[in-house]
Amino acid sequence: MLGPIQHLLSQPATRREGVRQVGELLKRTALAAWPRVEVASLTNDDWVGFLKKYGDTDTHAVEWLLNDFEYHSADCIAHLPSRVGDDVIVATRSWIERHDVSA
Question: Which of 44, 55, 71, 93 has the fewest CB atoms in 10 Å of its CB?
């Protein structure tokens, strides 16, 4: 599940798409674990606050990238240090595993 996203995050040219997919994956996980009415409309600061509230690890990298994501240019994201992508994957994996919902 995170392998393809990790690959996108590792490449400057596709890093922005990787961040977009991280946000989508986290939102799908939250929608599976909480009532839709509590999660579906969350954006920007409210969404980041939700991730922090229900997170158990440092999600700073994820929060920074997801908060006001549309305002981060592709060039800005492409030039992030590669370790940021690694941090995003670790935090995302941890958050998802903590909120995994059986089908």
Answer: 71
Map tokens 């997801």 to a residue. 66
Cα distance between the two ends of the chain: 16
For the stretch 53-68, what's the b/e string if a residue is b when 16 or more beta carbons lie within 10 angstroms of its beta carbon?
A: eebeeebebbbbbbbe
pLDDT tens column, 15-64: 889 988 998 999 999 999 999 999 999 988 898 889 888 886 677 777 77
Domain coordinates in residue numbering, the chain: 3-98
User: Residue 37 has which token pair?
Assistant: 């009415």
